[in-house]
Amino acid sequence: MILNYTLRDAEEWAAFSGDYNPIHFDLQHVRKMGADQLSVHGMRAMLDMKRQLSATLLAAPPEHDFYVFSTRMRRPVLCQTPYDLQIGGNGKQITGELLDCATRQNCFNSKLAAGRPLELAACNHQHALTVAEVMALCQSFPGQALEATQAWSFFDALLFQLLVKSPATLAALTTALPELQAATLIDVFAQIPVVQTHHETHFSARLFTPTALFEPEDRLYYHIQPMLIIGDRSNGFVLRTVIEARTQRHPLLVTSVTLKTWPLADN
Q1: pTM of the predicted protein model
Q2: How many alpha carbons fall within 13 Å on the CB side of residue 117?
Q3: What is the mean pLDDT of each run of 10 residues along the chain (267 residues)?
Q4: CA 184 to chain CA centroid, nearest Å
Q5: Backbone torsion region of residue 89, taken as left when φ is above 0, otherwise alpha when ψ lies between -120 and 50, otherwise beta
Q6: CATH number of 2-261
Q7: How do the domains of the chain map onto residue ranges?
Q8: Which residue of 23, 82, 164, 267 pairs with 185 in a disulfide if CB–CB is 3.0 to 4.6 A?
């Protein structure tokens, strides 16, 4: 499958996520950073990978109750650049690569495989969205959120959005970088160079049948674990953060995100 992302793809993801990082929209800003082209958000490019991996898996009825999607992100996915999305494997493990058609360089590779049962961490405080709020967010998702191959991808994208907008994740980062002037991590992304290096989603196979997920009065409950921060200003920081979600009756998914900042010059 050949994919070629455009500014419209970047705009659709931004409309859903609220992330208007200039590296996706401002060519002058990108050139100041030493690059030549706009890039599409890695989470947007992952939507196509997730859909194709799921379609291959769902060619037969799922055999397991839980699955794990994992991605290693190696280089930016540029706009106006043809990419070859290659899918392989069998019902036990489906793999995918996104390759630059011209250079054959690997932008990211992913895997979808059976996983262990979900065990959510105990927590004293959690947030909740109503079913109506979740359905409203479906409307701006750049895909078909209630389609079998895309529902878990929607919830994964939703958790990513909740994660980067959370005051708790920002508070953890400002302990390492107190000079930041930001309301959310999205503001941080626009101020300092940050790249996503790894993404993992451990989810229930119930997400392959989205119409049966919720009772009318149910909620989507979610909890963000404390952010892990390692590194220093000279070498850059590695940030790992985890968000978990469930319904009243069942665990649904756990999303783990690893980010890395560039080395930061001291003022």
Answers
A1: 0.91
A2: 2
A3: 92 87 80 80 94 93 94 93 92 90 95 93 81 92 93 95 87 80 78 87 94 85 91 88 92 94 71
A4: 16
A5: left
A6: 3.10.129.10
A7: 2-261
A8: 164
